[in-house]
Design brief:
The protein is an alpha/beta fold. The chain has 7 helices and 13 strands. The strands form 4 sheets. A 5-stranded parallel beta sheet has the order 6-9-10-3-11. Strands 2-1-4-5 form a 4-stranded antiparallel beta sheet, with helices on one face. A two-stranded antiparallel sheet has the order 7-8. Strand 1 and strand 2 form a beta hairpin.
Length: about 270
Amino acid sequence: LRNVGAQFHAAADGVAASTEVFELLEAAGPSTRHEVPAASPEGADRDGSIGAGVTFEGVSVRYGEAVALEGLDARARAGQVTAVVGASGSGKSSLLAALVGFTRYEGTITVDGRDVGGQPAPRPWLAWAGQRAAVLPGTVLENVTLGDALPQHPLAEAALALAGAPEIALDTVVDPLGGGLSGGQAQRVSAARAIYRARRFDCAVVAFDEPTSALDPEHEARFAAGLRALADEGRAVVVVTHRPDLVARADAVIAVGERAVSTADGLERGAR
């Protein structure tokens, strides 16, 4: 009972904090995010050419004296699905945190040839979904289109379909504790939010951290097909995963904690 009470208060605190964040965003007035054009059908970037993707050069992440990731050299190419694999604690999530902008790192991360070091989060070229399914009170539509002042219903439905959840209605209500959705549904709604953002704001990179951990093989296969569709639009799709079937469907594999990184073009040196 004590654990239940603690979890309830933690959830309530999170809801209160998110409400304050949204109020601050509203007070700040319109942002420039709606100036980003929608993705073209071919997935080309703004100058009409396919981007180069993400390149990691000597990327290391440290938390105090602890080394989470050291000396990663790898590439996630545009137009491909790249799986990031490795043992627990090998630095996979730290790599994603560096890409998202949530942690400091050494080395260089470039996107389409541009060094993105020092850019604050959120990053306009990136859409991502974390390891924990993050859903907020409200409708599924509000969750999928979170942060968009002009929600696009058809695009939200398409995002749910690519996330392997076409059966979830946009008017489904989520309560403050996540009720109204199963664990797997909440995970797919969270992934659909990243997919929606990627297409709505033409993000060059889409990243997911363990997006199918709560899914059965059938729904995982649908989600993998959605990743393929995003890559076919010209985006670099990066997915951290332990699931063998999802790895098998990827074009390239970054093996964190190993000496080599297998890719569609052969082997590249990885992180120790």
